[in-house]
Amino acid sequence: MKANRLLYAVLSGLLVLFSVLCGACAEDVPGWEDGFILAARSEKRAMLFQPDTLKVRLVDLETEKTWDSCVMEGKQGNKTIKNMQKSALLATFITNAQNATTTTYDSYSKSLQTGTCTWEMIEKGVEIHFTIGDDTFIVDDLPKGIRADKYQRLLDGAGWSSNDKKKFTENYRAVKIAGLDHEYMIRIKDDSLSALLIKQVHEIIFSSGIYTQEDMEEDNAAVNYERVYLPELHVTLRFVLDGDDLLAVIPCDQVTFTEGNEVTVLELLPYFLSADTSQEGFILVPDGCGAIMQLNNQKAAVTAYSMPVYGKDALVNASTYVSPRQDVALPVYGIKRSDSAMLAIIEKGAELAVISASVSGRSDEFNRIDTSFTLRDVENVSLAGNESVTSPRYCDDVYQGEIVMRYRWLTDETSSYLDMARVYREYLLSRGLLTEKARDAEAPFFMEVLGAVRKDAFFLGVPYSSSVQATTISQAQSIYDAARETGIRNIRLLYAGLFNGGIKNAALSRLRLDKGMGSENELTALSEALEKNGDRLYPGVFLARAYSNRGFNPLTQASRKHDGEPAQAYRFGEPVLKHARTDHPGYYISPYHLEEYIQKTLSQFERLKLKGLHPYDLGNTPTGDFKRRENLSRISAIPTFESALEKVKEPYSLVLETPLLYALRYADGATDLPSGDNGFAITDASIPFLQWVLDGSMPYSSTSWNTESYLGMESHLLFAMESLSAPRFTFSWQDPLLFAHTGDMDYMGYFSVQYSQALETAAAMYREYSDFYRKVYTASPARHDIVSATLRRVVWDNGVTLYLNYGKTSAELDGVSVPALGYVVREEASP
Amino acid sequence: MKKRLLCLLLILLVFPVYAFSDGREGTSNYLYTLHREPVAAPPAYTLAYSLTARDYPDMDGLDGMVDAYVTEDAVYILCAKRLVVLNHDLSFRCMVKTVTGEDGTGTDLDACSGITVTVDGDIYITQSEKSRILHLNPDYTLKRIMERPVIVGYENVKYRPTKMVVDNAGRLYVISKGMYEGILELNADGSFTRFFGVNEVKFTPWQLLWRVFSTREQRARQSLWLPSDFTNLCIDQDGFLFATLLGSEQETVKRLNAKGENIIKVPTQQPYPSGDLWVNQSGFGIPTGPSQFIAVDTNDCGVYICLDSTRSRVFAYNEDHSLLFVFGGPGDREGYFRNPVDIAFIGDNILVLDALAQSIEIFSPTLYGQALMNAVRSQYRYGYETAAEYWQETLLYNHNFNLAYSGIGRMLLRSGRYEEAMEYLKKGEDRVYYDKAYEKVRTATMRRYFVPAVAAAAAILILILVLRLIFRKKKDRNPEDRPSAPVPRWSPAWFRETFLGFPFRLLLRPFKRFDEMKFERRGSYLFAFTVLFLESLTAVMSYVYTGFLINYNDIYRVNSLYLALTVLFPVGLFVLGNWCVTTLLDGKGRLGEIFQVTMYAIFPMCLLQLLGLLLSNVLVLDEMVIVTALTAIGGVLFFVYLFIGLAVVHEYGFGRCIGCLLLTLLAMMVLVFILMLLFALVSDVVDFVTVLSKELMLKFF
């Protein structure tokens, strides 16, 4: 490695020369400083590059604003933090294969400073090749054995001082090794040599020129010694100016490492989206429906934000407790500084990403947010029969594609999170990840009806698996008719628990209506009756999960974990924080079998002549399969899920539950969207970011209002108006006490669903929401202000202003008195 | 910039901006059924807002929070080195770091551990590591310093007052850490009166047995069995002391009367208020073990809340010690706690101090929680009608709530709507009141149907008599005494004889019939196996179908096979054991005969059990003694018939038969022992085969 350093230096020198030649025109770019070269230029932006620091500076040619990729002059923080501030990436790799301990190296101190990185100009950008490693000497930098004659020559001819001689002789002593032609002096103190002593001895041996690196290799080979090298990683990072956006690209197939030092995590541009204490603004995190952290919010003592995109991989550490939380659905985040805002979009590799954010005062003076990409998700798997012995495992199917971060710069000083949502939505539309669809003229209503669930029945005191029906098909028809009667329109009827064992259905490859629900003809008739009114029936089904062994072989068809067991859709039981025991485990259908399974299921569905389908799981919780010898990681499994959705989408209109980004383009509606953030202490307020992104592409709703009626309908209504989420209610014909003793907390949690009690409220809420909806359905939100913790104002571009008061006391805003848990709509003639 | 900051702080003061909660954060939303199974419940309390030192410009920090005390108009937050006084709306009132005595000398607050405020506004602060109590005037000047009281015999035990309360009579109750004799009761002048509410050391029989067998050295190495330490206390509005305990004891919270006795008494089927009823003893990265209460507070309607330090949860109980709600949990998200140290009611809101997050968390009731609290309050004040209305409202939010059903049921019972009451009381599993309602309903039904029923019975009786008169001549009167003509097998007559004739005749003249069984082969294997099946089925059915009033089983967790085995296994064991013994003791009975005898002897017991099962569904609690009596009679009958039967088939005398039965017992034990050995061996083999086959499967599939 050390020998290469010279080469690196020469190469870099040449490149600097080259770049200075081609960067001659860089000086007329605003924001140019000494040492920068112009790497790329578009109509509005320029990208400057500083070879000495590897800093990339984005320049807006109109406003002459600049944005740097790293921080070279941070004031606070220890050495590690300072190095991080100056780095383009941080690499974490395995240092001990036995117990999977890892170390993190930053690219500044372990590559740039050691002179082991090169760069070259590419089209519209610059490519940097990092060789990240430690340049300290280790004992293997010394020869293991020295041939006796060379040894003697060294002692005689090198002209050492007596002190040097002593150091040298103390560490090499003569040993005659059997079977060799020569006598060798063998290094004896392998473990006890201090770093300083190694360095000194290295100097002594090699400085004279009598003994060379080649000699060392020859001697090591002669005594049959294989030297150990320090970990060394190679990572290529590309900065490209794509239109007005900056792209940071890591081709994962070019990530190489010394044996046993697998790269586990790459953290990219840790300080690109950062702001010091002098800045004002916020950080946008895609937590729940979206959350903001005020810059310098002084929450230095609370835990930093860190959430995996698309949620935790269900196959890794499946039984380790995590408190229930909303998964990150959109791989996007942003920061607003005093003068402009930057939106970071994870374009490729989102499935590997973990978004982390923290505020100033924790480790330094910066508020920042960035992404780490987990290339290898290591789990310590315990051996069968002995829980305390573990061995580290990770998925063999390591991502070989590109990691692409797109940074879109909102140079306007007044850019808000609403603008960020708009810009992101535009991006998704341009990429085809979302399609535009005008809002319905009538306010949509999501009506969930509960069908059958599994519950034991008894014969002569002996229990057997049976099911109970909360709402039969004809009762569902009555509920629907009653709802129409009360004036509810544009209904999407989500019918849960129709097939194979009820709400948590078994495999559907042999589809049959649950006993006691009614006949298939009735179901078809119900669907047709809805269609006649312009409404639609969406039977709710798990399409990528089977909650039973019946008609499903977990051993061959379910996704497996590292320990070989089929993975299960865990639900962490509240009292003990362990996964709840259940009589009907939910198996994830392996992506290897998903296509075939979907095909079969769809052909079964054909005879029902339905128009819509409400898959609970295809749009979220994508899982791979860690079947031995055939590992498939989550990121490689996503295309399978996409093609499954594609197939289901063809004959059916789809309402998806909590869809993640990859599923959005297949959705004709989305339900159970989070209506708040996850409540991490570090975030300050939640905003309906997700809803703003989806708005104009599909109707959507949050979770059912009445199952959370303890909060009061008003707070649901307020959020619905703020985010334009449609009302969603869950109805059951029977008393929900029917769900007691099902052994499933999910079923027991259907609160306040009895339709005879809930329909009235639902109708009232729908009317109220509908009144507001009619005022704004042709407009879009132009401004959103969080006036205080409980007070918000949304201004629509047709002049409608909505004042929302989530508080328990009435409040005054803009001269308008807003009642407690209430709202005021003010209409003005549009300008 | 500075101006903006100031504005921001002002806003913070008015609205705690940085703690916006949309209330959707549901934490620990469950309750327990009577069977100690968790059941989902909506959140009764959610985080309203949380306050940190950032929200108070006049305060320099909230580090080392230890205790909170709420009075009529103020909230006292005690940190290790400062006392913060807030108003009820949590706005800042003042902060005390040094207290000055009358002579003008200042004493710094340091190592504070507990605070209590009297009705007169006097403040007591315990300083455990300084072994003293500070007594402050309402204006935060020092009144006196109470040093260690004289306790004869305990001079060598360190005095570490951690928490204390003052009762209306001015007596001080002080917890001194490490003084295992109980809570110290001091006079107003600070002199020691007595130890109060001592926690007795309890041993399990297993511990005692272990102790007996351990050597002196082992015993010396075992930890001392010390009484549990008190951790916290509060005084309720009736003047009783609530105290929380640390340790493995079941009773982690106690309500102590003047004599220092625990007056929390719960009915046998109701769990003691001890936090989580379902806990894990192991787990990676999650808390383990039972709940440990470290703080307690009560409100004006008998509700008390306890803080569990194991899982950072708050449990609330009503005056009858039924669990009302649970909230909190470990974590650093909204509604979770990192290291909670104390809780207190502020009106209906609940304050929780989180020492690690250095925050004051205020929880307010949701609509559900409010309805629940209102119901409890009305009930506490004997307003049953209003309580029932609130319970009804509670049910709209939570249909899984037993307490609400029983609350409504009791009200309906009082207002004479017995049938509705029955329905609610059954849903609420309130057996005592269900019994009362049921009795009323049954009486009414009987009254209505008594006359027609008697008339119908009489009519049927007369009809039977008439029919008998008509058909009398055609039938032989007593076929039993004549030599019966052999009936063909499987004919109806044969069935009648096998299942109805012989077994019942046997009941009347057991000696004769058992004799016939042995020498005339009158016994039937078909009947014997039928009885065996019937008896097993009775065991299974009585678990599920026994009347609600005395059936406390969780029928959805029934293991039918196990229940059936409780019959099959002992029968098999007895028959085999008896056969082994009697073979050696010249018994004449064969294995088949022993089996038949046992089954014919069980037959009457089985019938009585079935009868009892039927009756348990129609009787009220007071009459349940009939069921018990039936079962007992059945047992006695079984034994008598078995004894006679065995004596006959083995041709034993009385004494010999007794001896043989005793030996049979012994033989059964030996058999069990051998079976256990076999079982251990087989389970090892099975384990090995499963692991091996699993590994093979995982490798090749």
pLDDT averaged residue by residue of chain A:
89
CATH superfamily of the largest domain in chain B: TolB, C-terminal domain
Biggest pleated sheet of chain A: 11 strands, antiparallel
Question: Mind telling me the C-alpha Rg of chain A?
Answer: 32 Å
Low-confidence spans of chain A: pLDDT under 50, at least 5 residues? Answer: 20-24
Choose one word for the global shape of chain B: elongated
Strand order of the largest sheet of chain B: 3-27-26-25
Indicate how many domains the architecture of chain B comprises: 3
CATH fold type of the largest domain in chain B: Neuraminidase
The largest sheet of chain B is: 4 strands, antiparallel
Largest interface: A-B, 66 and 74 residues
Instruction: Count the beta strands of chain A.
Output: 44
Supply the CATH class of the largest domain in chain B: Mainly Beta
The helix content of chain A is 10-25%
State mean pLDDT of chain B (0 to 100 scale).
Answer: 87
How many separate helices of chain A? 17
How far is the N terminus from the C terminus of chain A? Answer: 68 Å
Q: What is the CATH architecture annotation of the largest domain in chain B?
A: 6 Propeller
Got a strand count of chain B?
Answer: 27
Describe this entry's structure for a reader.
The complex is a heterodimer of chains A (831) and B (701). Chain A has 831 residues and is α+β, with helices and mostly antiparallel strands. Among the domains of chain A are: 2-132 and 232-276 and 293-323 and 342-381 and 392-412, no CATH class; 139-222, no CATH class; 778-831, Immunoglobulin-like (Sandwich), CATH 2.60.40. Chain A has 17 helices and 44 strands. In chain A, helix 12 runs parallel beside helix 13 (634-649) and helix 15 runs parallel beside helix 17 (755-776). Chain B has 701 residues and is an alpha+beta fold. Chain B folds into three domains: 2-281 and 291-365, TolB, C-terminal domain (Neuraminidase), CATH 2.120.10.30; 367-476, Serine Threonine Protein Phosphatase 5, Tetratricopeptide repeat, CATH 1.25.40.10; 493-688, no CATH class. In chain B, the strands form eight sheets. In chain B, strands 3-27-26-25 form a four-stranded antiparallel β-sheet. Chain B has a four-stranded antiparallel β-sheet with strand order 4-5-6-7, with no helix packed on it. Chain B has a four-stranded antiparallel β-sheet with strand order 10-11-12-13, with no helix packed on it.
